[in-house]
Amino acid sequence: MTKDHDEVRDLLAAWAFGALEPADEKKVPLHLAECEDCAAEAERLRETVRLMDGPHDPHGPHGPHGPQARPAADTLPLALRARRATPRVAAHAAPYAAAVAGLKALLPEAAGRWSTPVVHDWDVHATLAHLLAADEPLADRLGIDTQVRPPLDIDADTPWEDAWNRRTAEVIAHEYGRTPEETVADWAAQADALLATPEAHDPELAAHAVTLMGMRLPVAEHFLVRAFETWVHSDDIGRALGLSVPPPPEAHLWQLVRLAVRILGLSLGPTAPPVLFAVTGGDEWVLGSEDEPVRAELTLNPVDFCLLVGGRYAPDEVPRGTNGDEGAVRNVLERAASLAWL
Amino acid sequence: MVVPLESTGKTSVEPSADTELHRRLVYGDESALAEVYTAYGGLVRRVALRVTRSPAAAEDVAQEVFAQLWSRPYAFDAGRGTLRTWLSVLAHRRAVDWVRSEARHRKDARADDAALHTIPDAAPGPDEAVVDRERSLLLHSALAELPQPQREVVHLAYFAGRTYRQAAVELGIPEGTAKTRLRTALRTLAETLADPPDPAWERGA
What we know:
Chain B: Pfam families: Sigma70_r2, Sigma70_r4_2. By secondary structure, chain A is α+β, with helices and mostly antiparallel strands.
């Protein structure tokens, strides 16, 4: 009896909400018939739910002549207007378009928290300024006017890493004299301009190779590099703000993985001890010498591989599957991590 | 053979449907919003209509809710709850805000005869309907102020038609906890009626 009483008492709110399990349905009325306390409580709770349901006037408080709802079919298109559509671009620029859309969606969360430390000695504002500087070489090359920022005061024969770091420092110093919102607006405008270039829309125009940041690659792949860097810094900013930034859409992630594998292969050269390299859920490659038998196997998850190449994992920290010659594996991991310039 | 030595903490084993939708929303995939709308548009409207009792207002609330998810996808965190609950709670919040602002406007325009149109003249008699309507708003206002864990389970049971067991599974909490939260929540709401604090809800305070 007491057991029934306690059990039913715990169920009364669920009963009032109509949220009982079918098996409980009979138990409750049986007990209510013989327990005044529970019956009173049940009545009180059910009356509360009835009042939440509201009066049963068929036309609502506005009567039959109240304001008409606009057609339900308009609701989704109107909601979609709350955000600018991602530009439709060729496949090689789509990952950059998505990464830019993703960072634009993240930045409102930084409002009032622009000075949160992110990575290196950068806060959110400086990380944006760095991206502004980092997108600049491709923008310049594609004929976009970037003159709003301090002119480039760096010799043409300066090694690219030095030039790159100095330019970032210059732009950060410049942007600190402005509001974060102004920096965001300039970064977004430059990114939008990149996505509006003919090279973002036409694979043939994007096929010619140019040297940027020490890498001679087709323009199409420089767009992928921009996507890569934009995503990794978005991930940095997300971590700093306590938000989990999702990996790029699956198709884009694999475009980034294939580019990174190609650059890693070139960097290892034709004589490195060969390693069978697999990325979970995708392809396998033999990295290093083609003339020797494979010395080891290495498996990485695609996101972890990108974060390793992006410098967000130390070579000995990245989660991995390995088999065979440890030295050959370490060589690949260390080389991958050394590619990071972000 | 390649043996994974350790699992990574950076990506989940099998991303949930919500996680995958969120990923697509973040990166600006319009078809993801269309999918969310197809799945939860009905629930969002139902919640908004229950509170506002105006199809036009419910449609506006639905637009606001999906616009919010689209323009601020990071406001939803798949690690903290389901999209269903998040949308339901947001729709309810916006609907309560709508009613509060309506009430303010009505007060401002009390001298205006036009305001009288808002009083229904249908059965069961205007006075009773008005009183019931006020009580309903008081309850929804109180529901919107409940602690988040209680609010979520009420939303699943009351608006989304889940049993307490299904709600517990969706929220990842023990069944007993779901029952207790429902009970605490509903008792709090019942007490609001017995002892209405002050008409602050009407002032939007």
